[in-house]
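<instruction>
Derive structure tokens from the sequence
<entry> Chain with its tokenised backbone below:
===
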Amino acid sequence: MSKKTDKFENDLSNKISQFKHEQLTSIPAWMTDLGIARNLKIISSRRVGASGGKTDIIVTFDNNMKLKISAKMSSADYFGNWYSHTRLIKEFGEEAFFKLTKDCTEWANEWVKNPNASLFIGVSICFGKRTGNTAKKFIDIFTYEDIKTIVAGNDNSDQSANCLYISNDIPNSLEELISNLKPINHETISQVAQNFQIAYRPINPMKEFSNRGKCCYSQFILEKSLEHEIYIDSLDSLRSLGYFDIVENNSINHNRILKGLDSKRLIIKRISKEESKAKKALKNKQ
């Protein structure tokens, strides 16, 4: 989780604490369905953060009922940059992992035909607000139930949220807070999820060194054994030798794919650590 997201959740929780002992005067029907009635007062607001599962802030009322708020969808920064297999499965679930590697592989087998594509042997992923040919919408891959589980969880414990905070701003009043809270239903999830994309990141081993350590969600596979070593420095020369396939939950990265291809006599040209440092130093001088 980003520092920006941490700060936002802390600021939101602290602001809600300022509304303690104010009486609810008007509430939506969905909040009534949660057992929260008019005339109740907030007695505490506590940010639970990463320890709270999908819930970010717990607001307790004087009848002991709780609003378990997920603020994740209010900011694309929540989704961070690179996702390892371990992190994705922990936050999104194993089913989401398998859907993602399948879709990523379908994308890779199409992208490899693109005349504008550079050499790549694996694809990593990022989440957030993206544009361009490498972006896929959440709702193109995940179902409503998937996204609901990702954002809010799927049980009645404090780990699972029962409402979403939909705003990039901290509320100035209790009324504004209530207005910015939305129920977890199909309409709300569909509305907020359409703004978020999955960015597929094909890493060029000839130009990128540090990013080769990122986990892959699709990998290049040789179609048949090679009788002698073949050296590859372009996507055109790679394309006819194999295809992209799904990955297992084993944290495979670009370097491991490269080593595996090395052992099968397919040598992919790649930038070294020293060359990468020199390239960065030159760029910083310019």
Q: What stands out?
A: The mean pLDDT is 88. The radius of gyration is 23 Å. The first strand starts at residue 42 and ends at 47. Residues 73 and 192 are 7 Å apart (CA to CA).
